[in-house]
Predict the 3D structure of the following.
Amino acid sequence: MKPNQNSLSRRLLFSIGTILFVTQGTTIFWLLHEEQEIIVRNLHRASKLNVPVESLGWFNWEIVGALFFPALLAFLLSLFVSGIAIKRIISPLYKLTTQLQQRHVEQWQPFDDDGSSREVTAITHALNLLMQKLQLAFSRERQFTSDVSHELRTPIAGIRLNLELLEQQSPQEIMPLIARLDSMQRTIDQLLTMARLEQKMVMGLQTPVDLVNDVILPAQNEFRELLQARGLAVQLFLPDSAYVVGDKTLLSLLLRNLVENSSRYADSNTSLTISLAEQPDGLHLSVRDIGNGVDETHIAALTDAFQRFDQRGSGIGLGLNIVARICALHHAKLQIKNHNEPHGLIVDIVFSAANKKG
């Protein structure tokens, strides 16, 4: 809502106040006009009876007061009663607004209809119909991802088997193809995991997860092996524990994608840094590499599916897209930026206070 935008209740109250002001003002002026004849007769009678005219001044003001103050009181009382009535009339809209604001991503339950008015009922039914259409669209998307992933696993497994047989004849040519197939297989497995767990997250089946002891430390040996194969080391800067509400498998998948993505583009003989730190805006999970970084004009598009701005590595451009989707499911903020001391890229996941537990 715009800061200078008036609410519906204020506009209604202003309209009613304007109507009351005009009608009450018109009534007062009309009665004053009618009372002028009485005032003139009083002045004429006073002149005949030799009554000082000044003594009639209070009488004339009493007439004005008798007309003005009751009208003012009626005006203020009418505004007060109108304000209460307007508040009661539009309260269902406020309730509906609150329900909308409290909805999370992919929360499809229908909105409650209190039946207070036909207009509110029509809005509620329209919103529920929209929610049904959105739910159907998202369900079809998840089903499509699952179906495609299942259909791809079998031919990829067959191709890999044939390549392993050919590897005996020309290993130098076949090994890169096998590595590329393995990368595709991992991506398909990740998509299957996402399709399976997204529904679980949507249903609200999240649990407290310790990012330190449930996610990062259990994977540190895997990360060390991966990074050592690429001439890299890993540094951990972690507290004793750091809890968020979410899904352990998805959070592990998020971290694995961040590490794999950073390891592809980091300079050899450097370190990859994984850190957790509490800051005013929330809990920050950061993965930082040392390398060439990313062109600033490309950062906003890094999370797009199948988007690759650097052809090093065997990825297909889904790693950061999967990270972004997991962040959305956990209501976390994804920040990607270059750093200069030393030069490289830092990916920051911010879990707000609403995501934290413990």
